[in-house]
Write a structure and sequence with these properties.
Blueprint: H1 27-41, H2 47-53, H3 75-95, E1 100-105, E2 108-113, H4 118-128, H5 135-147, E3 150-151, H6 152-159, H7 164-172, E4 176-181, E5 189-193, H8 195-201
Antiparallel strand pairs: 1-2, 3-5, 4-5
Helix pairs in contact: 1-3, 2-3, 5-7
Length: 218
């Protein structure tokens, strides 16, 4: 039977274009589900988690997964299919002047507001989040972010004050976590930032942190 003529969906992708195995779904077909998940969760979702939720990946799928079961793709195929769906959604958002788009943040995809709407969103967020990080907490977090993994002694040597309580606060807020122990006398604890830190500050990885010269002042 001849194949139906391809047409483009509102998501900006061809729903009949194959992206993996012949029986697998298209980017256009999974785009609404990807959008629904990202809108609902409101945080960065790794491609692997999206793949499992969409039925593209087995729970234990990895890079070598052959996709032997019907409807299951390899990890690479699923990642490419999801990326195509995201590109299609972003094209649709751009074309229709939406106030948001999907970006890769903290190793996953997240729905974010476009910069021009930052003012109105920030006014609402400030009202909902009265508790801000103190200046000592911000300074400590910055040192951990740039010098990680770092011990408490090294941190206190840089700041010149005790950092125990500040570290506890940052860990309670899940911005800092224990990364292991240093290979030195006493095996002191090493601290580093978390995925929530990347998510909250809009970085895909610590490599995206601005250099001291690029960081905003004041």
């Amino acid at each position: 039977m001849p194949r139906a003529k391809s047409s483009t969906t509102e998501a900006g992708v061809d729903p009949t274009a194959p992206a993996g195995p012949e029986s697998g779904p298209s980017a256009g077909e999974i785009a609404p589900a990807v959008e629904a998940v990202l809108l609902t969760l409101g945080r960065a979702v790794p491609p692997s988690r999206l793949g499992v939720a969409l039925g593209l990946l087995a729970e234990d799928a990895d890079e070598e997964e052959t996709g032997a079961r019907a409807g299951i793709l390899t990890r690479g195929q699923a990642d490419r299919l999801i990326a195509d769906a995201v590109d299609g959604l972003n094209e649709q958002y751009e074309r229709t002047g939406r106030s948001f788009r999907i970006e890769q943040i903290a190793g996953g995809y997240r729905m974010i507001t476009r910069p021009e709407f930052a003012g109105v969103v920030s006014a609402v967020v400030k009202a909902q989040q009265p508790s801000k990080l103190s200046k000592p907490a911000v300074e400590t977090l910055a040192i951990v972010a740039y010098r990680q993994p770092i011990t408490r002694a090294e941190l206190e040597a840089i700041r010149g004050v005790s950092c125990g309580e500040v570290l506890k606060t940052l860990m309670d807020k899940r911005l800092v976590t224990i990364k292991g122990r240093a290979e030195e006398v006493g095996r002191p604890i090493l601290y580093g930032t978390t995925k929530q830190f990347l998510d909250q500050f809009g970085f895909s990885s610590v490599k995206d942190l601005p250099t001291p010269g690029e960081a905003p002042v004041g």
